[in-house]
């Protein structure tokens, strides 16, 4: 049995999802020879630290009851720098302007030789090459499947299952909120504002939905794909981005009458990297509805491989985090 001492930086929806998944999958982890011992959890108000291993059930209950897991005033960065452990699970919120505390956490982890698994898009969308160089220089493992497709595997699919293939292009729907709004606008012949309000009531869209509906989230994910799969050197600012806020029921109906749907599509190919609404044939694999995400990967050997799945949700994203952890340590 291999014991991995880990910290969870950020205990919002995804961080809590990671704790739930680690509890739920204890037997599976033991069967593959892994004992994941969480020795520290941090949120915005402080941390819990127990070098013998935190009771994750108690931590989750305390977060639910008090709104924080904190038992002492110590930041995630201080824990990374001062507490001995192997793995930093970085699930703090995305900051697309500066990279936020997530960027500092990752660089500090690499500086101290720790491995990093993250769901945080911001640092990778802004400083991908810097982070990769830091991880290489320290000999640290760095995995980030959860930053792009949630439970829908893209990066590991390309790098592992499709190893040996040259990837020609990747295109798809990378934001479930936008896909839900466009799907419902078409179904109800309703305006954007009405379906946005519905998605907010259901908890699908945030109170401030601009990150999703303006295409920013999709653009961040596309940058990570472009850099990790194609070896490019893009940042978020290089993406040509158009969101969905100007789409009307009339345009959706016109598209439908001609055998098309309108979807927010991210595409990376050669030097092209863009996110924009596009006409998609109704019978295309990209014409998925609801909150689903989809990616179509064109390769030289395997042809076109399409994968569909849930791109958001705490447990779904945590499943990708767990997959990365297992892939690092199982062998």
Task: Characterise this structure.
A six-stranded mixed β-sheet has the order 3-2-1-4-5-6, with helices on both faces. Strands 8-10-9-7-11-12 form a six-stranded mixed β-sheet. It folds into two domains: 2-150 and 314-329, 3-Layer(aba) Sandwich (Rossmann fold), CATH 3.40.50; 157-310, Dihydrodipicolinate Reductase, domain 2. By secondary structure, it is of the alpha/beta class. The chain is globular and about 65 Å long. The protein has helices at 13-24, 26-31, 56-66, 76-82, 100-111, 121-138, 155-161, 176-188, 192-201, 210-213, 216-230, 249-257, 314-329; strands at residues 2-9, 34-43, 46-49, 87-90, 115-118, 142-143, 167-173, 240-241, 260-269, 272-281, 292-299, 304-310. It has 13 helices and twelve strands. The longest helix has 18 residues, at 121-138.
Strand content: 15-25%
- The CATH superfamily name of the largest domain is NAD(P)-binding Rossmann-like Domain
Per the CATH scheme, the topology name of the largest domain is: Rossmann fold
Sketch the topology as an H/E string, one letter per element: EHHEEHHEHEHEHEHHHHEHEEEEH
State the low-pLDDT regions, or none.
Answer: none
- CATH architecture designation of the largest domain: 3-Layer(aba) Sandwich
Mean pLDDT: 96
Report the radius of gyration as a whole number of Å.
Answer: 20 Å
Tally of domains = 2
Strands in their spatial order, largest beta sheet: 3-2-1-4-5-6
Q: Which structural class do you get from the secondary structure elements?
A: alpha/beta
Work out the number of β strands: 12
How many strands, what sense, and barrel or not for the largest sheet? 6 strands, mixed
**Amino- and carboxy-terminal Cα gap:** 12 Å
Shape: globular
CATH top level label of the largest domain: Alpha Beta
What is the number of helical segments per DSSP (H or I, 4+ residues)?
Answer: 13
């Amino acid at each position: 049995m291999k014991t991995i001492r880990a910290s969870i930086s950020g205990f919002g929806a995804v961080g809590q999802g990671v704790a739930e998944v680690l509890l739920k999958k204890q037997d599976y982890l033991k069967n593959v020879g892994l004992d994941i011992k969480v020795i520290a959890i941090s949120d915005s108000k402080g941390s819990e630290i127990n070098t013998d291993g935190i009771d994750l059930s108690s931590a989750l209950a305390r977060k639910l009851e008090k709104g924080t897991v904190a038992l002492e005033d110590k930041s995630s960065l201080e824990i990374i720098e001062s507490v001995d452990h192997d793995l930093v699970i970085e699930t703090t919120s995305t900051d697309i302007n500066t990279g936020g505390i997530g960027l500092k956490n990752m660089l500090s982890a690499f500086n101290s030789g720790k491995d990093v698994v993250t769901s945080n898009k911001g640092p990778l969308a802004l400083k991908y090459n810097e982070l990769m160089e830091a991880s290489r220089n320290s000999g640290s493992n760095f995995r980030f499947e959860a930053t792009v497709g949630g439970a829908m595997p893209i990066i590991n699919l390309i790098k592992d299952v499709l190893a040996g293939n040259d990837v020609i292009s990747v295109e798809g729907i990378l934001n479930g909120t936008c896909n839900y709004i466009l799907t419902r606008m078409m179904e109800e012949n309703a305006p954007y504002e009405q379906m946005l309000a519905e998605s907010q009531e259901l908890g699908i869209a945030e109170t401030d939905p601009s990150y999703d509906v303006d295409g920013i989230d999709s653009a961040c994910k596309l940058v990570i794909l472009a850099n990790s799969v194609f070896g490019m050197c893009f940042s978020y600012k290089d993406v040509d981005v158009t969101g969905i806020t100007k789409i009307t029921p009339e345009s959706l109906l016109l598209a439908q009458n001609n055998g098309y749907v309108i979807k927010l599509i991210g595409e990376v190919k050669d030097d092209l990297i863009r996110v924009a609404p596009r006409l998609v044939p109704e019978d295309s694999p990209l014409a998925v509805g609801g909150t689903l995400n989809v990616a179509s990967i064109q390769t030289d050997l395997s042809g076109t491989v399409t994968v569909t799945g849930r791109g958001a949700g705490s447990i779904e994203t945590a499943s990708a985090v767990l997959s990365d952890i297992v892939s690092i340590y199982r062998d």
